[in-house]
Specification:
The complex is a heterodimer of chains A (about 170) and B (about 55).
Chain A (H helix, E strand, L loop, with lengths): L4 H27 L28 E6 L2 E9 L2 E3 L11 E5 L3 E8 L4 E5 L5 E4 L5 E6 L4 E6 L12 E7 L1
Parallel strand pairs in A: 2-5, 4-10
Antiparallel strand pairs in A: 1-2, 2-3, 5-8, 6-7, 6-9, 9-10
Chain B lengths: L2 H20 L7 H27 L1
Classes of the chains: A alpha+beta (about 170), B mainly alpha (about 55).
């Protein structure tokens, strides 16, 4: 079969890029362990409080180790429940030290919500009945907006909270 | 026409066609090549950009 020399070049280029992309994908999935944030951990969306992580007193930042934190978040229209402060007012801003290992665990008690920590790789979809989790290290100090990026209803644009990463 | 001469004729016709293909000029694919490589390079560069952003954050 006769193949034009230009065709040979772009076939090589196309197959080569495909191989590179597949190798990077496989390396990320099997070596680095990258997986979807919602890995089939289920709970009853009508009774999320039955799950230990989403009990009223366990919401918000929990220090679980020397430099390890867990952030439990219960999303609902149109709010991120991060627990209550000493005065009983809802927490709208949480603080995490830079460089700490943080695991965000979140779920929703009503519709699908987004969970995006703007400017970082923390970006998940929260689906009723599933726990989404993301383990990360936030190295750059600053204030990050936790924002809903899945349209969830009329108050969608008001659904946000602040995560402050301090030195 | 005898069977043999008909065969001869058809094979001669085939040879003529083959010659035709072999001497056919190569199509000019310069523009196609440029367009294909432009899209290919665009895809690769955008992919690397997004990947770098992901790794940096």
């Amino acid at each position: 079969m006769h193949v034009h020399k230009y065709e040979k070049i772009w076939l090589t280029f196309g197959i080569g890029s495909l191989l590179v992309f597949l190798i990077v994908l496989g390396w990320g999935a099997f070596y680095q362990g990258t997986q979807p944030p919602s890995c089939l951990v289920t709970l009853n969306p009508q009774n999320v409080q039955a799950h230990n992580s989403f009990k009223e007193e366990n919401l918000g930042v929990q220090q679980v180790g020397e430099n390890e934190y867990v952030v439990n978040v219960l999303a609902s229209a149109f709010n991120y429940d991060l627990g209550k402060d000493e005065e009983g007012a809802p927490v709208k801003k949480i603080r995490i030290p830079a460089g700490a290992n943080v695991t965000f665990q979140a779920t929703t008690s009503d519709v699908v919500h987004g969970f995006h920590l703007s400017g970082t790789n923390v970006n998940m979809m929260l689906e009723p009945g599933y726990i989404s989790d993301y383990e990360t290290t936030l190295d750059n100090p600053g204030e990050y907006t936790l924002v809903c990026n899945e349209y969830c209803g009329v108050g969608h644009h008001m659904m946000s909270a602040i995560v402050e990463v301090y030195e | 026409m005898s069977k043999q001469s008909a065969l001869k004729q058809s094979s001669a016709h085939d040879v003529h066609e083959v010659e035709d293909i072999e001497t056919h000029e190569e199509p000019n694919l310069k523009g196609t090549f440029a367009a294909v490589m432009f899209i290919g390079v665009f895809i690769v560069v955008s992919w690397i950009g997004v990947y770098a952003l992901y790794m940096y954050r």
